[in-house]
Amino acid sequence: MLTRAIARGLMGIIPDKLTVVIALNADSASPTSVTIYGAWLKPVNVTLQVYGGVNLQGNETLVMIPDLELNPATNGREPRARDTIVAEGITYRVQSSRLRTVDTVWECLARKEIV
């Protein structure tokens, strides 16, 4: 059985981790920016037309954010639709998100912003 401790330990073997900045547009007037050092990108299956209730356009990717880095003090932050993520100089707009892998990783379906 997979536990949170085991899931967190397995995150150490993920290659190609990168630093991302997520701007959380909560109910307040100003967004909260959080720097995540252990995020990773995961491609969306190209045969899918819908993912998590979102119609895919072809410029989406999954941004995986460890909950421990987003909420180090168990402060209840969560990515929501319309939040932005900047990874490797590319801005993504969150379309949907959900907590996965025994509540240890936020899986954010994000669409690349066209400038």
Notes on the structure:
- The longest helix is centred in the first third of the chain and has 7 residues, at 4-10.
- This protein is mainly beta and 115 residues long.
- It has a single domain (4-112), classed as Thrombin, subunit H.
- The model has no long low-confidence stretch (mean pLDDT 87).
- It has helices at 4-10, 67-70; strands at residues 18-24, 32-42, 50-51, 54-55, 60-66, 84-87, 90-100, 105-112.
- The protein has a 6-stranded antiparallel barrel with strand order 1-2-5-8-7-6. Strands 3-4 form a two-stranded antiparallel ribbon.
Order of strands, widest sheet: 1-2-5-8-7-6
| CATH class bucket | Mainly Beta
Report the CATH topology name: Thrombin, subunit H
Total of domains:
1
Instruction: Give the SSE string.
Output: HEEEEEHEEE
Number of helices: 2
How does the major sheet shape up? 6 strands, antiparallel, barrel
Overall shape: it is globular
Q: Provide the structure class.
A: mainly beta
Distance from first to last alpha carbon:
45 Å
Helix content: under 10%
> Quick one: how many beta strands?
8
* Low-confidence residue ranges: none
CATH architecture descriptor: Beta Barrel
Keywords for this structure?
115 residues, mainly beta, Thrombin, subunit H, six-stranded antiparallel barrel, two-stranded antiparallel sheet, 2 helices, 10% helix, 45% strand
TL;DR of this structure?
Helices cover 10% and strands 45% of the residues. It is mainly β.
